[in-house]
Amino acid sequence: MKIEANSTLIPCFCDAIFRKFSWKKFLCSRNDSPEQRRILQADRILNCVFLSLLGVILLQACQSSADPSKAPDFMLLNLHDEPVNLSEYKGQVVLINFFATNCPPCRVEIPDFVLLQDKYGSKGFAVIGISVDQNGKRILPGFAQALKINYPILLATSKVIRDYGNIYALPASFLIDKEHRILKHYTGMVTKDELEPIIVNALGINE
User: Fold this and answer.
1) For the whole model, what pTM was predicted?
2) What does each C-alpha distance from 123 to 6, 95, 126, 178, 182 come to in angstroms?
3) How far apart are CA 128 and CA 174, in angstroms?
4) Nearest-angstrom CA–CA distance, 171 and 59
């Protein structure tokens, strides 16, 4: 998930900045010495430059966050070298799970994902596993068979890791709704009991 500009934090941050750099600080008093006036003028110029740069940064952040809650689309290869796009799952509730085969919590949570896929797959739910293993094509087929994984496993790229917030800890999961808006982001292991109520609600199922 890309790091996005927060519509609430930005105005507060800007307000704090402008309070800090109040123009009253830059007004020269008649009693100021020439040396003090030069210092104040230099300070004013430096702070104007700072505020201009800050404005450029915030503008770029705002432009890059048209819909900060939307899961970034991706095109990744599966274990058969076939391209898979997230957009193909439009209209489905999707759990995107970043994992690695040498990550113990990742292995522990996968059976719950298998159960959820089996129970809700026919009702519009899908799990997508994204492996960050370096030798994924070699080790993942046996791994998937051993854990009886019943959902697609894709091979991560540096772009998808960056787009989803520079994944820094595994496992990391994103539960998205039918419009692919992010409902929940989990860092660390997540269980069936935590996921199921949200999935049922997103699918509109009355149990």
Assistant:
1) 0.68
2) 34, 14, 9, 12, 19
3) 10
4) 33
